[in-house]
Design brief:
The structure is a homodimer of 205-residue chains. The first copy, chain A, is an alpha+beta fold and 205 residues long. Chain A has helices at residues 12-22, 41-46, 65-75, 87-109, 121-146, 160-168, 182-193, 195-201, and strands at residues 2-6, 26-30, 54-57, 60-63. At the A-B interface, strand 4, helix 3, helix 4 and helix 5 of A face strand 4, helix 3, helix 4 and helix 5 of B.
Chain lengths: 205, 205
């Protein structure tokens, strides 16, 4: 039994979908960002970084989306969420997810989380203005060089797909038109049709 | 046979050390950042992201430090660079490395790479001023909650160690005194004593 700590609209959605895809036995607990619950003493005892997602397992807490996703794939091999028997193919899955967390998510975060890296309102406004350009560049690269289609890694659905889907839900707010990225738009549409995604998005998973 | 594309002073050092620790058969090729070689057509054909490291394998190119490190650990199981038979312990290794790439490296990058996320000189200066605080906070968390000692994961040396060592070499320039972090300082000293690290740093590996 796992427990996923999440907040709506965050990257925790990727781990949530992966748990549902894996057929895992799990519960979820919503952390209320409006009351800053992520920085409450109770939650900091779970994740001292004050972020979501965090996955409680029988042997301790796990944080960071790429690590949680790979863990779910390895824990439920029958769900075939990653090429577990091929180190290079597995590394390519990890490489994609690492790019999402270290470059794409970070580019997005400069829209409303500028105070993580600067102190002046003028800097926050400057960062915010650049987000359509940086997110646009990230997704142009994903569209042209990374997304093999129909899924990120080609014919096989993997843990890259819910993560890409999750970050792509931010594009409209980031000023990037998904319609300008045909492969991504098709990926987004396919993802929304999956039973696991519907279950999670309607609060039934 | 692997080939690692690297530049001095970058996070590519972590993969370089891991290759040496693994006893891998590899060569290295230095990419000259002073002439912007990372954005040359030849290098962009290797890594369209225009970054290092990139690891050329017989089956294609691999990028992103956490993915390369896990790939090295899985490709050389006898080197015992990760707990490969324990999905949760492996995920904890990955969680640490994911934190380094998505939070710590990113905090550091705001010192001289502000133009990735903003456009105004005043914003770059603001970002630069905040780096001692953000890197200090990251390493305070690493010191108090993550670094088990003597190695990151405890008694077993893993792929977390060369990555932490690499990023810690940036601390002085980032305005964080390593002496204020006793566990980290000891880790840094131990790392510098390892044969693989000496070999790489003296250009013999």
């Amino acid at each position: 039994m796992f427990k996923l700590y999440f907040a709506p609209g965050t990257c925790a959605l990727a781990s949530h979908i992966a748990l549902a895809e894996a057929g895992a036995d799990y519960t979820v607990e919503r952390i209320d960002f409006k009351t800053n619950q992520q920085n409450s003493p109770d939650y900091l005892a779970i994740n001292p970084k004050g972020r979501v997602p965090a996955l409680a397992t029988e042997r301790g807490i796990l944080t960071e989306t790429p690590a949680i996703l790979a863990f779910i794939a390895q824990s439920f091999p029958n769900a075939k969420l990653a090429p577990l028997d091929d180190a290079l193919a597995f590394a390519q899955v990890q490489s994609f997810n690492s790019y999402l967390c270290s470059t794409v998510h970070v580019a997005h975060a400069h829209r409303v989380r500028g105070s993580r890296w600067a102190s002046e309102e003028t800097s926050f406004a400057d960062m915010k203005r650049k987000v359509p350009e940086t997110m646009g560049a990230c997704f142009a690269l994903i569209e042209s060089k990374m997304l093999r289609g129909p899924w990120v890694m080609g014919e096989q659905y993997t843990i890259c797909d819910p993560y890409l889907y999750t970050i792509a839900t931010w594009l409209e707010g980031d000023g990037v038109e998904i319609a300008t990225l045909p492969k991504l738009a098709e990926h987004h549409r396919r993802m929304a049709e999956r039973a696991a995604v519907k279950k999670v998005l309607t609060g039934q998973g």
